Amino acid sequence: MPQYLIAFNDEWVQEHTLEELRAKADASQVVITDMQKAGVFVFTDGGIGAESVLFSATAKDGKPVFTDGPYVETKEHLGGFCVVEVDDDEAARYWAGRLAVALEWPQEVHRFPGREHILQLEESE
């Protein structure tokens, strides 16, 4: 069964008071609980953004190079995400829609290619 990433960027969300954020957390928890009951929930987390970046890692001459914080040119930061494992794109659309309504901000959905996709690529070579 494919897994999907449902995510939002921190920049898509207007400023909220602590009380508003608590209400959003409560509303989204209802959806997460429904995901758990449906057996599609894998993992979720949020509250991440530009201020939570610890460091960046790149490669130079086969060795890792670490720098503090995000790259200067980075304009968007992941704000939160949820991973679900569902039958198809339509089911992922349903859960993303539920989160968009509960949180009242946009969600973006990505399908992880999965092992099957990698095997198909290897077979086509």
Automatic annotation (TrEMBL):
Record's protein name: YciI family protein
Domain YCII-related: start-end pairs: 16-98
Superkingdom of origin: Bacteria
Lineage of source species: Bacteria, Bacillati, Actinomycetota, Actinomycetes, Micrococcales
UniProt family annotation: Belongs to the YciI family.
Any matching Pfam family: YCII
